[in-house]
Design a protein that fits this description.
Blueprint: E1 2-9, E2 15-16, H1 21-31, E3 43-44, E4 51-54, E5 57-60, E6 64-70, H2 74-84, E7 90-92, E8 95-105, E9 113-118, H3 142-158, H4 164-168, E10 173-177, H5 179-187, E11 193-198, E12 205-210, E13 214-218, H6 220-229, E14 242-244, E15 254-256
Antiparallel strand pairs: 1-6, 1-8, 2-5, 3-6, 4-5, 7-8, 8-15, 9-13, 9-14, 10-13, 11-12
Family: Belongs to the CRISPR-associated protein Cas6/Cse3/CasE family.
Protein name: CRISPR-associated endoribonuclease Cas6
Keywords: Antiviral defense, RNA-binding
Length: 267
């Protein structure tokens, strides 16, 4: 299930860090019900709105901003949204945001060959003593796809939604990056992979995240899992959210989502 949470910005012109996923992760950790404190099978985007790059970071120029949140557990989403709308406002860095409305996206029909864009960076692997999460791995190498396969299968089993026997059937798996996109960025001397800070268990680690369009060859059940839960590691910390490439008209893919009244501040 995927929802778009729309906020009104009470201090238009405030700024955000260029990478602000860790700030949003702190907000969602407060909002996600305590019964799901150890649950990490969700993902979310950065703040979407009209922004201008400045020396201080991203200056928000629009009156409203949006965050996309996805999770296969509809109860968690319902309780999280109810929690959110009990607040008069939330703070994300310098931004003072008031929850305004929620739209629910229709669930797409996913095929064995699906093209995605990243709306937050993908982290392909966890550090295990032999693997440096900051190391660059070319998305065109099999190693990149192999790490994401291991990550996805482990997460699918740990979610409780699939057995080991089921995941063993999902051996068809290949990440195929958009070659033209990568070559275009290279010619323009732009980056698609950067080192970011993440805070698992409130401890800072540095990870390399990748943002690019790609095609995933995998069974529909695998496609649905990464679409709902995020792709790669640290999805609950703001990494690995995907969207469909060429998804079509936005308004035709969403409908209203009932929310509760706002009551108190989150500080």
């Amino acid at each position: 299930m995927r929802v778009r949470i729309i906020f009104s910005l009470q201090n238009k012109g405030a700024t955000l860090p260029f990478h602000h996923q860790y700030l949003l992760a702190q907000v969602f950790q407060e909002l996600v019900p305590k019964t799901y404190a150890d649950y990490d099978f969700y993902s979310f985007s950065g703040l979407k709105g009209q922004m201008k790059i400045s020396a201080a970071g991203l200056t928000v120029l629009s009156n409203r901003v949006t965050i996309v949140f996805a999770c296969p557990n509809e109860v968690l989403i319902s309780e999280m949204i109810a929690q959110l709308f009990e607040k008069k406002h939330i703070m994300v860095g310098q931004l003072r945001l008031s929850p305004e409305s929620v739209l629910q996206e229709d669930n797409p029909i996913l095929s064995q060959e699906q093209k995605y864009v990243c709306i937050s960076p993908i982290v392909p692997c966890l550090e295990d003593g032999s693997t440096d999460q900051r190391r660059f791995i070319s998305p065109q190498e099999d190693e990149f796809s192999d790490w994401l396969y291991e990550s996805t299968m482990n997460r699918m089993e740990n979610s409780g939604l699939f057995t080991h026997e089921q995941t063993a059937q999902f051996y068809k798996f290949q990440v195929v990056p958009d070659k033209d996109y990568l070559e275009k960025l290279k010619s323009e001397d732009k980056k698609f992979a950067r080192v970011y800070a993440a805070y698992p268990q409130h401890k800072k680690v540095e990870v390399r995240g990748y943002t690019m369009p790609f095609t995933l060859l995998a069974e529909p059940a695998v496609q649905q899992f990464v679409y709902d839960c995020g792709f790669g590691e640290y999805s609950n910390l703001g990494f690995g959210m995907l969207d469909l490439a060429n998804a079509g008209n936005f308004s035709s893919r969403v409908r209203g989502y009932e929310t509760k009244n706002k009551k108190e501040d989150l500080v």
